[in-house]
Every structure is written in structure tokens, then in C-alpha cells.
Inverse folding.
């Protein structure tokens, strides 16, 4: 596959404490290597604590901006990594849910992996869309009107989803391609 360019593309990464480290780091690296600028958004300023397999503390990551101070128009694409507690915290925050809803409704591309779709469910943006996720999230997606498939990576109208860290190579390749296509 030819290298896709994301030069000039502004990618928001929305995460909170409990984010699965590999699901934050690998997609971030993939889009940055393609030329994008990333901004880590969270619920508060400071640092967020990443996890490895939801049980072992990973690294901490400096938050660039608070999501409540941002608008979807500030960015060209959005990444929603998983981890079980990360999207659970995000979906309980009205500013995060509003940001995600506005982003999806704007038609800008979104990449979401593992438990990340919980935030999409809370934002009420999965109705009529096909996506995949970690198995424990699938009933929530169906109950919110989404169609779930069990595939490595799924793309539906700019929404790119994958199941878990094993899917990261395909997920990263697809988000770079979809984010580049949206920028044309």
C-alpha cells in the first residue's frame, strides 16, 4: 500500500484514566508517522493513567486540552481508544458525549477500538451504523440501534471500528487511509 499523507490533518484523541495503552499509542504513532498532528483530549488537565490489559498500570500521558474547551470543528479526525474504564468515564461526562456526538454528526472520520464504542452509544450515534467492538460491548451497540459484525476492521460512512488490540495493524492502516481520504 502506498504511504498515505496526513500532512496538515488535526487528529483529536479522546481518552481518560484507564485507557488501554497500546490502543492509544499505536494509532497515535500511525497517524503521526503519516504526518498528522495529534491532540490528547481528556476530562481534566494534567496526566491520564494508561493501563495494560486493564490490570497493570502503564505509562501516564500529558493531556493537551480539556474536551469541554474544544469544538469538533477544531479537528479533522477523532480517535477513541478503549480500555474498560476509559470509555466508561467518558460516557458519564456530558461534555465528552456532546463532543463525540457533534464530531460524528459533522461527518468527520472517527476511529474507535475495543470498548471505545461505549462512548458512541452514549452519544447516540450508532443507530443505523455497522461496527465491531469487544464482545462485551456488542449488546449495548445493538440496543442503541447499531448493527454489529465480528470482523477485524469495519468502515461505515467514516466510522472505522476494530475489536481489540490484536486488530491494531489493520485498524491503524485503515484509519490512516480513511483519514487521508476524508481530507481530500
Amino acid at each position: 500500500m502506498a504511504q498515505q499523507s496526513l500532512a496538515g490533518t488535526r487528529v483529536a484523541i479522546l481518552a481518560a484514566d484507564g485507557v488501554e495503552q497500546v490502543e492509544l499509542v499505536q494509532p497515535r504513532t500511525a497517524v503521526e508517522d503519516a504526518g498528522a498532528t495529534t491532540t490528547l483530549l481528556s476530562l481534566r488537565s494534567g496526566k491520564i493513567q494508561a493501563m495494560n490489559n486493564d490490570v497493570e498500570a502503564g505509562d501516564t500521558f500529558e493531556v493537551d486540552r480539556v474536551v469541554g474547551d474544544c469544538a469538533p470543528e477544531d479537528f479533522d479526525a477523532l480517535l477513541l481508544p478503549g480500555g474498560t474504564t476509559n470509555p466508561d468515564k467518558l460516557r458519564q461526562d456530558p461534555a465528552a458525549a456532546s463532543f463525540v456526538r457533534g464530531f460524528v454528526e459533522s461527518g468527520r472520520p472517527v476511529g474507535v477500538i475495543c470498548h471505545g464504542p461505549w462512548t458512541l452509544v452514549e452519544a447516540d450515534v450508532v443507530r443505523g451504523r455497522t461496527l465491531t467492538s469487544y464482545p462485551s460491548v456488542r449488546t449495548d451497540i445493538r440496543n442503541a440501534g447499531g448493527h454489529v459484525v465480528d470482523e477485524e476492521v469495519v468502515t461505515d460512512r467514516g466510522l472505522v471500528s476494530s475489536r481489540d488490540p490484536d486488530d491494531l495493524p489493520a485498524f491503524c492502516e485503515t484509519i490512516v487511509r480513511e483519514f487521508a481520504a476524508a481530507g481530500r
